[in-house]
Design a protein that fits this description.
Layout: H1 2-22, H2 65-68, H3 74-77, E1 85-86, E2 97-100, E3 104-110, E4 115-118, E5 124-127, E6 130-140, E7 146-147, E8 154-161, E9 167-176, H4 183-187, E10 197-205, E11 217-223, E12 231-238, E13 242-244, H5 246-253, E14 272-273
Parallel strand pairs: 1-7, 9-12, 9-13
Antiparallel strand pairs: 2-5, 3-4, 3-10, 4-6, 5-6, 6-8, 8-9, 11-12, 11-14
Helix pairs in contact: 1-5
The structure holds zinc ion (ZN).
Zinc ion binds next to strand 6.
Length: about 270
C-alpha cells in the first residue's frame, strides 16, 4: 500500500514536470522505428470528419457541443452521459471480462481528435458473458473518467461492438511509470498528417499489450464521450492502470493534451464494481 502511494505521488510529481516541460516542444522521440515516408500516403480521407467542427476548447468545447448541430443535442440533454467520476464499492460477484485478443495487423490514424488504432475482425472479448469484437483503441489525455476524484495522465478506450450493434467500451487508465515495451511500435507509426491512415501489415500488434493483468472494474451505462454523445454505451473501466514512461507519455502529448470531456452527472445511475 505504502509502495503504491509513493508511486502515485512520484507519478503525479513527474507528471507535472513533464507537462511543464512539454511547453518547450522539445520532446525527445522515444521511438525506435519511424515509419518511412514511402509508406505513409495510404491516405483514405473520410470527408464526414471535416463537416462538423467540435473540439475541446473555446466556442467548440464540450459545454457547447449540444448546440453545434441538432444531431448533437444529446450532449446537453442526455441524462446518462459519460465520462463520470467512479467510486469504489464492495464488488459484486460475476461480471467477468475475458479478452481473446491475438497479434494482428492494424491501421493507425490521427483523426483530429485522438490517435486511433483500428483492428480487423477477429479480436474477440467476452464481456459479462456476451461476445464482442474489438473495433479500435484510442487515447485521451488526461483521463476522461476519474476514480475517487482522481484523474490520470491518459486513458485508453477499447471500443467493442456486438452482433446487435451494441457498444461496449473498456477504459484503461494510464499512469507514468515503467516503460510500455509495445507502445513505441504504435507511436512510431502515427502518420504526420491528420486523417491519414497508415496500415501495418508486417509487424502485428497484440492489443493485450495495453491491458493490465488484473481485470477488476467499474461497470455503468453511459454514452459516447464525443459528439453525438449517443447513449446506451456499456462502460467497463478497469481500476488497475497500465503504465508508460515519462517519455512515451510526453511523446503522445505532442499530439494531444486536453482531450477529455469533463465528468458528467451520474443522475440516478450507479457504477457497480466487479
Ligand atoms: Zn474515447
Amino acid at each position: 500500500m505504502k509502495k503504491i502511494l509513493i508511486l502515485a505521488i512520484s507519478c503525479s510529481f513527474l507528471w507535472s514536470c513533464s507537462s511543464s516541460k512539454k511547453k518547450t516542444k522539445k520532446v525527445a522521440k522515444p521511438i525506435v522505428k519511424k515509419a518511412t515516408k514511402a509508406k505513409e500516403p495510404v491516405a483514405k480521407k473520410d470527408k464526414t470528419k471535416h463537416q462538423v467542427h467540435w473540439g475541446y476548447t473555446g466556442a467548440h468545447g464540450p459545454s457547447h457541443w449540444g448546440a453545434i448541430k441538432p444531431e448533437f443535442a444529446t450532449c446537453k440533454d442526455g441524462k446518462a452521459q459519460s465520462p463520470v467520476n467512479l467510486t469504489w464499492h464492495k464488488p459484486e460477484k460475476g461480471g467477468t471480462l475475458k479478452f481473446g485478443y491475438i497479434p494482428t495487423r492494424y491501421s493507425i490514424v490521427d483523426n483530429g481528435h485522438a490517435i486511433q488504432v483500428d483492428f480487423p475482425e477477429g479480436q474477440k472479448a467476452m464481456i459479462h458473458g456476451h461476445e464482442y469484437q474489438l473495433l479500435q483503441v484510442h487515447f485521451h489525455a488526461v483521463s476522461e473518467h476519474t476514480i475517487g476524484g482522481k484523474s490520470y495522465p491518459a486513458e485508453a478506450h477499447f471500443v467493442h461492438k456486438n452482433k446487435e450493434g451494441g457498444l461496449a467500451v473498456v477504459g484503461v487508465m494510464i499512469i507514468e511509470g515503467e516503460k510500455n515495451e509495445f507502445i513505441d511500435q504504435l507511436w512510431g507509426k502515427i502518420p504526420s498528417k491528420k486523417h491519414q491512415k497508415l496500415m501495418d501489415d508486417k509487424t502485428p500488434f497484440n492489443p493485450m499489450a495495453l491491458l493490465p493483468s488484473i481485470k477488476t472494474h467499474y461497470h455503468y451505462k453511459g454514452s459516447l464521450t464525443t459528439p453525438p454523445c449517443t447513449e446506451g454505451v456499456m462502460w467497463y473501466v478497469l481500476n488497475t492502470p497500465i503504465s508508460m514512461s515519462q517519455m512515451q507519455l510526453a511523446y503522445f502529448n505532442t499530439y494531444y493534451t486536453k482531450t477529455n470531456r469533463p465528468v458528467q452527472p451520474l443522475n440516478n445511475r450507479k457504477a457497480i464494481n466487479y
